[in-house]
Amino acid sequence: MRVRVLFFGILKDIVGKPVDAIDLPEGSSVRDVLAYYQARTPRLKDSLPSLALAVNQQYAGPDTKLQPGDEIALLPPVSGGAGETPARQPAGRPRYATIVREVIDAQRICRALKRGEDGAALVFEGIVRNQTRGRKTLYLDYEAYEAMALEQMESLAGQAVQQFQVRDVAIVHRLGKLEIGETSVLIAVASPHRAAAFDACRWLIDTLKRTVPIWKKEYFEDGAIWADGEPFPGEIPRANSGG
Known about the structure:
single chain; alpha+beta; 5-stranded antiparallel sheet
């Protein structure tokens, strides 16, 4: 059976390609995909303890059985920290989340979100700064496992509305090349009460940065590197784990 395999972030550099298609025996699992690439790219073995896996845009363990045509993604750490694994939302047109490649207009998004019953409208913008650990940053380049990232962001927003009892949420993440001072991610929360808006906004950005498959490459005067990520939350299986 033939399956499609995706690589993101630094894994593209290690494997030498962003996407591949391989043939496996019927009944194979994700673990067989990992073995296939370890045999051909020994450097990959060192990365396995930190990698998460996805099958058809859902986090999965290495023993997940595969079907013909499945899409397997190898995911390096995103932004770090411990947190919750987002629950899956029903498929459908996103209500809360958007991925864009153009400049994010915070005022327009906030205006569209507010209603007469709101007592608070809170906007968080993550912006590109001009240095990282003392090195001058020229610009950033963001990439994502787009379909999965959009579903994860949508799920997080739905959880925030229920958990914090806010009225509405908007999450917008930008991909591609971003200059210094530009907005990479925006979270807007509308709520009858300010405390809930603050709590929901903080939870959303912290959890998004830990679990949503988006990576950034930092460009400096003397070269470029993929930004380091910290471990995925414990609820997300690793590439070298069982189950």
